[in-house]
Design a protein that fits this description.
This protein has 441 residues and is of the alpha+beta class. Helix content is 20%, strand content 27%. The chain folds into two domains: 5-128, Fumarylacetoacetase, N-terminal domain (SH3 type barrels), CATH 2.30.30.230; 137-436, Fumarylacetoacetase-like, C-terminal domain (Fumarylacetoacetate hydrolase, domain 2, Alpha-Beta Complex), CATH 3.90.850.10.
Length: 441
């Protein structure tokens, strides 16, 4: 992905809130989501975040001020889900981005700029839904640090499975329980084998956890039986989001051999409302490399472009807000921080691996990256790692509380952003969710 004038760090918008230094949504970002005015009962439709506002793509389409591919893309996005836009591919996504960028730029004028100004809805006044109708959701497992940290809990003598360094491993998840940020969920019930017991128990999850992940949405997709080669994989990726793969560790560790996670993972997965496009992420791409003493990717998972800039440097952090934080009006406590750049496999390698057997991906499908843990213990992306499998209590800053796993009333907040000297910072907003007690019903 080449840089172009929509990445110009000097660019400003006539919308003042888009120009602040710590703002997630400057004119260089323009992420897509689905929204409506909160409590209005309106139809959900596509929108683009700019500063503290949302551009209503339905209103812009109705104004008739866009033309060509940009107009077609905005029309496709004027629906309760973005699948039709994602199916159009990179040329259409880029045409709409460039049209919006030009009309939002400081000094721009004319009917298109007037239409954008008239379409703005304050972000404080909107609610979101999941941005696409997700046909299928797959969750990868591509942080070697997470794999080693969790592997030590489950298999202390053999933490890393032999396949990990040869292919991006994954399981097929559950699309129906993917929810948008802000949606609370009940602590799940399930079956677990308590340590030292000889028979399992059925009851509330006692080891509820979060997983700091990113997700990416599939663009045009591929026909059944048609592989997507690595050098074309990114043309099939619309953009990235924040994702929390909530996990019931006690249920998961008991049930997952030999077929993989089931109820331990399928009760809730949260995504951020905004999808940051691959074009917006272009200035933050980093090389993919593999230490010389580790297995190099097989040729179908290797390529010059992937080596040069297959990675993405997205800074990430996990915050915890307990009931005590809320009662005392304290800021949430930071649990960890890391970057997506440490991941062992790139989004392109994940997408290609998904298709090489012939599996067809469809527009709007969601692929999770797996938990993102960095190389140091402080960079762990799940509580099971920070608490060493629950053996160590984590002090929660600002409170007299400790955690080994999540308690009812806990709210987990994921944040993500990209920054680099000489480039305008862009952000993903947040992905949040709160643990409710067991559903009494
Ligand atoms: Ca996961």
């Amino acid at each position: 992905m080449e840089l172009n004038h929509t990445h110009d760090p000097q660019a400003r918008s006539w919308l003042d809130s888009a120009n602040g230094p710590d703002n997630d949504f400057p004119i260089q970002n323009l992420p897509f989501g689905v929204f409506r005015r909160r409590g209005s009962g309106e139809t959900f439709r596509g929108g683009v975040a700019i500063g503290n506002q949302v551009i209503d793509l339905t209103a812009v389409t109705a104004s008739g001020t866009l033309d060509g591919l940009a107009a077609d893309a905005a029309h496709a996005a004027s629906q309760p889900a973005l699948n039709a836009l994602l199916a159009m591919g990179p040329a259409a996504w880029s045409a709409l981005r460039h049209a919006l960028f030009d009309a939002l730029s400081a000094g721009a004028s004319g009917p298109r700029t007037d239409a954008l100004r008239a379409s703005l809805v304050p972000q404080d006044d909107v609610e979101h839904s999941v941005p696409t109708r997700i046909g299928d959701y797959t969750d990868f497992y591509t942080s070697i640090h997470h794999a080693r940290n969790v592997g030590r809990v489950i298999r202390p003598d053999d933490p890393l499975t032999p396949n990990f360094q040869w292919l991006p491993i994954a399981y097929h998840g559950r699309a129906s329980s993917v929810v948008v940020s802000g949606t609370p969920f009940h602590r799940p019930m399930g079956q677990a084998m308590p340590p030292g017991s000889s028979s399992p128990v059925y009851g509330p999850c006692a080891r509820l956890d979060y997983e700091l992940e990113m997700g990416f949405y599939v663009g045009p997709g591929n026909a059944l039986g048609q592989r997507v080669p690595l050098d074309r994989a990114e043309q099939h990726i619309f953009g990235m989001c924040l994702l929390n793969d909530w996990s019931a560790r006690d249920h998961q560790f008991w049930e997952m051999a030999p077929l993989g996670p089931f109820l331990g993972k399928n009760f809730c997965t949260s995504v951020s409302p905004w999808i940051v496009t691959m074009e917006a992420l272009a200035p933050f791409r980093v090389p993919f490399s593999r230490p010389a003493d580790e297995p190099q990717p097989l040729p179908y998972l290797d390529g010059a472009a992937n080596r040069a800039q297959g990675g993405v440097d997205v800074r990430l952090e996990v915050l915890l807000e307990t009931a005590q934080h809320r009662a005392r009006e304290l800021a949430p406590a930071r649990l960890s921080a890391t970057s997506f750049r440490h991941q062992y496999w790139t989004p392109a390698q994940m997408l290609t691996q998904h298709t090489v057997g012939g599996c067809n991906l469809q527009p709007g499908d969601l692929l999770g990256t797996g938990t993102i843990s960095g190389p140091t213990p402080e960079e762990a992306g799940a509580m099971v790692e920070l608490s060493l499998g629950g053996s160590r209590a984590i002090p929660i800053e600002g409170t007299d509380e400790q955690r080994r796993f999540l308690e009812d009333g806990d709210r987990v907040i994921l944040r993500g952003w990209c920054e680099r000297p000489g480039v305008t910072r862009i952000g993903f907003g947040t992905c949040e969710g709160e643990v409710l007690p067991i559903n009494p019903g």
